[in-house]
Amino acid sequence: MNPPTSLGPAARRPTAGAPIGPPPGSRAGRSRRLGLLAAAALPVGFLLFFFAWPVVAILLRGIGEGGLAETLFDVRTWRIVGFTLGQAAAATAVAVLAGLPLAYLLSRLDVPGRGLIRVLVTVPFVLPTVVVGIAFRALLGDGSLVAIVLANAFFNVAVVVRTVGGLWAHLDRRAEDAARALGASRLRAFLSVTLPALRPALGSAAAVVFLFCSTSFGVVLVLGGARFRTLETEIYLRTVQLLDLPGAAALSLIQLAAVVAALAAGAAARRRRETALRLRPADTLLHPPRGGDWLVVGAALSVLIGLLVPVVTLVIRSLSTSTGFGLAGYRALAGEPADGVLAVSALDAAVNSLRAATDATMLAMVFGVLASVVLARTRRRGLAQLLDGLLMLPLGVSAVTVGFGYLITLGALPDGLRSSPALVPFVQALVITPLVIRMLLPVLRAVDERLRQAAASLGASPWRVWREVDLPMAARSLIASAAFGFVVALGEFGATSFLVRAETMTLPVAVARLISRPGELNTMTAYAACTLLILVTAAVVALVERIRLTGGANALGEF
To answer: How far is CA 455 from CA 1, 449, 461, 462, 463, in A?
Structure first.
């Protein structure tokens, strides 16, 4: 039977991803809503228990114990705030300037080894923060402001490359060609035509990079020492060494306000970027470098070499001893605990890291898949945006703040759970679940709703519809997000450092303790452990890039 013509062509030919389904008031519509509510209950409950509760506890401690007013009127607080924001702004500027030539190369130019370049650009973003801090310490010596800024920029060049490059690939080249034909120089055409068109992506990338740099912990902890402190490291210092919980809570409250403001700015910039992507068809035809392109290629390769130098330096230092090259650090990884610094061997710490990262990845996949399905199927756009924003909060809020929140709230937990090693995977899952959502959600939203409706009309249950329609299309993204989440969990340091016990120490925490102690063997063992983490990270990123090339998701997802 043909559909009534009065419905119009738009009704007869729904667009891909449109929220088509049974009427809301029907029995099928009510069942659909109940199913979405049930699917949302687990990730929302996880968010409330492991994120909202400790963060709210910090807010109440900061307000209720009188530490807030004293901290707010302390001139040292605002020096720390100023340094936190200043180094974040400087690192953001460096990352944006360094990322632009690489974004152009990967989005516009046909050059050999593009896949390898993508891997080399992405690896720094997922390296453990403590590893990057130690790499720049090995390269530049003890901490300085320059080292902190360069290390934070090193982390975030990939964000600029992926975010700006994603929009650059969609820009219509004819507008820039027309400007050149009218006599504009290449630079003027870029400044007057291309740069304004890239503004949504630049704003989105800058907001995300600034957020990550302002909440950077491991880098500043390793490089800053006693001279340079950000809100992150000051919260850690007051909590762990000074036991000033009210003061730390007040600083966490200040930082939380700044993070929420940055997240709001980032969300607005991301919406503008998504709008720009929808308005511009893809223009992905690559061309070989010609003319002035070679200057951009040279700049991009210079940035790439700059990304490799700290990593190569760290690897060389892991093999260097006072008497020449050797493997003492690598042998020590499997040896006994070093000079009483560690309660377990570095090998045991590595096993703990692998176990915790595996458990965290499994948890994050469950929470992330359920949340992505709910967000992709929710018809109310405002509700979906609100839920999406809430689920993204753990990505922006300081891991140190969350870890400190656990110290406050652990007393309310049963003794068995309070000392359970299972807390570490749950904390790591909190960090990586937003990344899983960002990688899966665009794929699920792109599935043609008519395929789901056709399967349902043939009698398939909601589970079978997911298994037969969504799962095959999202399979590559599921694998990529699991691999990506695993490597991020493997290197998580901020919140984990608050919760690990001697017997559950992870490798990043062990590295931080080793590097803080004197002795050549301790330092070489730390360098060797960092090298192993780099190799694992690079292997996983290469796997994700291979999946992307065969039809998977962007290795960084959508920010």
So the answer is: 18, 10, 8, 9, 11
- Residues 184-232 have pLDDT tens digits of 777 788 888 888 888 888 888 888 899 888 888 888 888 887 788 888 8
Classify residue 342 by burial, with Cβ atoms within 10 Å: 0-12, 13-18, 19+. buried
Q: Is residue 522 situated within a structural domain? A: yes
The encoded tokens of residue 44 equal 């929302």
Residue labelled with tokens 């870890």? 403
Q: Is 399 inside any structural domain?
A: yes
Domain coverage including residue 130: 77-228+292-320
Together in a domain, 301 and 176: yes
Between CA 398 and CA 450 the distance in angstroms is 41
- CA dist., res. 140 & res. 210, Å (int): 23
CA atoms within a 13 Å half-sphere pointing along the CA-CB vector of 294: 2
Supply 38's token pair: 């049930």
Name the pTM for this structure: 0.79
Task: Provide the strand spans (E) within 191-348.
Answer: 320-321, 324-325
Q: Please say whether the beta carbons of 168 and 108 come within 8 A.
A: yes
Q: In Å, what is the CA distance from 471 to each residue of 128, 331, 384, 447, 467? A: 31, 44, 21, 10, 5
Is residue 26 a part of any domain in this protein? no
Q: What is the pLDDT of residues 326-367, one digit of tens each?
A: 888 888 877 655 555 566 777 788 888 888 899 999 999 999
Q: What is the pLDDT of residue 15?
A: 43
Which phi and psi (to 5°) does residue 68 adopt?
-65, -50
Given CA atoms 238, 240, 245, 248 in this order, what sign does their dihedral have? positive
Nearest to 208 by CA among 389, 56, 58, 396: 396
In 3D space, the residue among 216, 215, 225, 173 whose CA is nearest the CA of residue 194 turns out to be: 173
Alpha helices for 24-74 (secondary structure H)? 27-47, 53-64, 67-72
Distance CA(369)–CA(436), nearest Å, equals: 8
Question: Are 297 and 360 part of one and the same domain?
Answer: no
The answer to whether 67 and 242 have CB atoms below 8 angstroms apart is no
Pair 310, 425 in one domain = no
Residue 100 has pLDDT above 90, yes or no: yes
Biggest distance spanned by C-alpha atoms of the chain: 87
From CA 395, how far away is CA 374, in angstroms rounded? 19
DSSP string, 167-180: HHTTS-HHHHHHHH
Residue 194 is given by DSSP the state: I
Bridge partners of 252, per DSSP, are none
CATH of the domain at 517: 1.10.3720.10
Per-residue three-class SS string for 486-507: HHHHHCCCCCHHHHCCHHHCCH
Residue with tokens 């140190």: 400
Do both 395 and 528 map to the same domain?
yes
Write the DSSP assignment of 433-468 as a string of letters: HHHHHHHHHHHHHHS-HHHHHHHHHTT--HHHHIII
Q: From CA 273, how far away is CA 265, in angstroms rounded? A: 12
